Amino acid sequence: FPSHDNGHLLQSDYPIDKIWEINQTDHPEASVDMNSGGVNLIIYRPHLKPIFRSIDGTFYLFIESLINQCTLQKTAEACLDYSKTFDLSEALARLLIMNVLIAFIKTQEGT
Q1: Exposure string (b/e) for 4-16, b if CB count within 10 Å is 16 or more?
Q2: Residue 83: which pLDDT band, with cuts at 50, 70 and 90?
Q3: DSSP result, 6-45
Q4: Mean per-residue pLDDT for 53-60?
Q5: CA distances from 16 to 32, 59, 79 (A)
Q6: How far apart are the first and last CA of the chain?
Q7: Partners of 39 in beta bridges
Q8: Rounded-to-10 torsion of CA 5, 8, 93, 38
Q9: What pLDDT was estimated at residue 56?
Q10: Cβ neighbourhood burial of 29 (10 Å; 0-12, 13-18, 19+)
Q11: What is the pTM of this model?
């Protein structure tokens, strides 16, 4: 699963996507509740503009497994173990729409 160098995963105990957002525009009175919980993010830069997209734990696991060179079958099985509602077609479509998936590599059986 080769991905663009501009796509990264990030987990945080804090709402860093909101922190980043309010620091990008004029929000003199804006604040972030640091106790609002953490986030799983995919950060990518189409046309050099960073996008912080909050993703659920299953989609995070899906992308992380592919980045770590797990086969699509093992990745799908792990995601289904994590969440019985995991939809492989939807997950692949989301990666394609975000333009972070650039290729599939066929591996030999058993590898």
Answers
A1: eeebbbeeeeebb
A2: very high
A3: T-EEEEESS-HHHHHHHTTS--TT----TTS--EEEEEE-
A4: 95
A5: 9, 18, 25
A6: 14
A7: 12
A8: -170
A9: 95
A10: exposed
A11: 0.80
